[in-house]
Write a structure and sequence with these properties.
Belongs to the diacylglycerol/lipid kinase family. The chain has eight helices and 16 strands. By secondary structure, it is an alpha+beta fold.
Length: 311
């Protein structure tokens, strides 16, 4: 088997020494080429070219942003070429997609599991989400957020550019700071889906392709606990943003059951083929923890069995 190993050298939790160990282990099992990313969306370009260069497998080492870029590259494989399979190894601070697949969060353990799957021929397919706007046509692996969480992601990216390390603690601190300052208390969103009545005046909307939405350290955060790769998209949206109710919802998200299907202060929809979110004014928008910009309207679609995974 011929494989391309796409490595993000800026990944939060990897070092040159650990990357060398992984490369050595994988290269003993297959013909391996290694490419390091040098700029944003470089992983996407490398993955898009992989099929034309004869690779059967693309492996990534990085966080959820690297995974998203590689997936988007693979999904735009030129027509007529066989699309390579994908294996993701954890190198970021959260690694939500990898952990949602049930794979080890430790890169050494994850590499071992991936190599066992290669030897046994184990493959599975997962569904993805797709975002369509006037400016975007992209796939997401686990979530898309409009409003509060995207504001946090945007601020984390700015902090990283100043040299600060991304961590679950930083995300939580910034989310709390924005909430207490009232910076996210904007009722501008409207959601609609086929067969459902529109809901207006929402503060925040999240669309998921699996559960959890993210992790607080080792604890999964589950606003949409019924969301699965094998189903359509799930939606969670806030109709209230007062301190008491928001704190209660956060406690439920951190419980093993997650947020229930019904309750005051929120709307949740399960297994949707399509969801459209609009805003009266531009709001921050993110997919898979990567800020895309401010948007007024996004259409999100479920794409079943879109990606072949090794592991």
């Amino acid at each position: 088997m011929r494989a391309l190993f796409i490595v993000n050298p800026q990944a939060t939790t990897t070092t040159p020494r650990s990357r060398d160990v992984l490369v050595g282990a994988i290269a003993r099992e297959m013909e391996l080429d290694v490419a390091q990313t040098e700029y944003r969306d470089h992983a996407r370009e490398l993955a898009q070219q992989a099929a034309g260069e004869g690779y059967e497998l693309v492996i990534s080492l990085g966080g959820d942003g690297t995974v998203n870029e590689v997936v988007n590259g693979l999904l735009t494989t030129p027509e007529g070429l066989p699309r390579p399979s994908f294996a993701a190894l954890p190198g970021g601070s959260a690694n939500v997609f990898i952990r949602a697949l049930g794979l080890p969060a430790d890169p050494i353990e994850a590499t071992g599991a991936m190599l066992e799957a290669v030897r046994s021929g184990e493959r599975r397919t997962v569904g993805l989400g797709r975002v369509l706007t006037d400016q975007d046509d992209r796939y997401f692996t686990f979530c898309a957020g409009f409003g509060w969480d995207a504001d946090v992601v945007h601020e984390v990216e700015r902090q990283r550019h100043r040299g600060r390390r991304a961590s679950p603690g930083l995300y939580i601190a910034l989310a709390l700071k924005m909430f207490l300052r009232g910076e996210v208390a904007v009722r501008s969103l409207r959601i609609e889906a086929p067969g459902r009545d529109p809901v207006r005046d929402l503060y925040f909307a999240l669309v998921t392709n699996t559960t959890p939405w993210t992790y607080a350290g080792a604890v999964p955060v589950q606003p949409t606990p019924r969301s699965r790769f094998e189903l359509g998209l799930d939606l969670f949206a806030l109709t209230q943003m007062n301190t008491a109710r928001t704190a209660q919802l956060l406690r439920q998200m951190l419980s093993h059951k997650g947020v229930p299907p019904y309750g005051p202060g929120f709307v949740t929809w399960h297994d949707q083929s399509e969801v459209t979110i609009t805003s009266r004014s531009p709001r921050a928008f993110q997919i898979d923890g990567e800020y895309l910009g401010h948007r007024r309207r996004v259409n999100l679609q479920s794409v079943p069995k879109a990606l072949r995974i090794v592991g």
